[in-house]
Amino acid sequence: MVLDQLYQQAVLAHNREPKNAFVMKSATHSALGNNALCGDALQVYLDVLDEEIKSASFNGDACAIATASASIMTEWLGGRSTEDARAGAAAFENMLFGRPFDRDFIGESVLLEAVAAFPSRIKSATLCWHAMIAALDGVAEITTE
What we know:
Elements: H1 2-16, E1 29-35, E2 40-49, E3 52-61, H2 64-77, H3 82-96, H4 122-137, E4 141-143
Parallel strand pairs: 1-4
Antiparallel strand pairs: 1-2, 2-3
Helix pairs in contact: 1-2, 2-4, 3-4
């Protein structure tokens, strides 16, 4: 029950006041993620120099879970290597699909673990992570369909 409350509080807090929710003019990488099933659309912006993500932001129209996930992810990404960013996306997805993952590595993102109980919401939670990987790969737009 305590984890469910932490999950709800985290989603509400990050949805009300999302961190890094702005169009980053200095972005070196960017990708739009679409979840046509529920209408989520998030643009992820990255400022990458020498394989290090200096900063990250996002902008768009999305549900509370997608917004909270993007807020938490962009906070986590700052100062990380692109290799760590890719590993973080894999760990986050592993968490939501019940596979082994390093809880400490993904930080506050573990608060979204309760999304795993709602399979229809997993695409909302992972949308920003997929968009971040697309941005690193030079892909302008992805969809979760």
